[in-house]
């Protein structure tokens, strides 16, 4: 029986914590930052937890 492969796009974007939560980066902090206010860029920094419905799908893609 062949093994299931991890979705390579997902493994670059998401991280699963020890307790099983799925963490993601916030969108909008990659480029064109010069015209965005500092308050916005600070708010977008750090990781966010995935919504429960989406987290289930991500775990399946990561083979967890």
UniProtKB/TrEMBL annotation:
Q: Which GO terms describe its biological process?
A: translation
Instruction: Provide any one GO MF term from the record.
Output: structural constituent of ribosome
Q: Kindly state one GO CC term assigned in the UniProt record.
A: cytosolic large ribosomal subunit
InterPro entries under this entry?
Ribosomal_bL35, Ribosomal_bL35-like, Ribosomal_bL35_CS, Ribosomal_bL35_sf
| Record-stated family | Belongs to the bacterial ribosomal protein bL35 family.
From what organism does this protein derive?
Answer: Streptomyces jumonjinensis
Q: What name goes with this protein? A: Large ribosomal subunit protein bL35
Keyword Ribonucleoprotein set for record: yes
């Amino acid at each position: 029986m062949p093994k299931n492969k991890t979705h390579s796009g997902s493994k670059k974007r998401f991280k699963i914590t020890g307790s099983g939560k799925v963490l993601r980066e916030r969108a909008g902090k990659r480029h064109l930052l010069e015209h965005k206010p500092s308050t916005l860029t600070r708010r977008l920094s750090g990781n966010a937890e995935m919504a429960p419905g989406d987290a289930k799908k991500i775990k399946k893609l990561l083979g967890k």
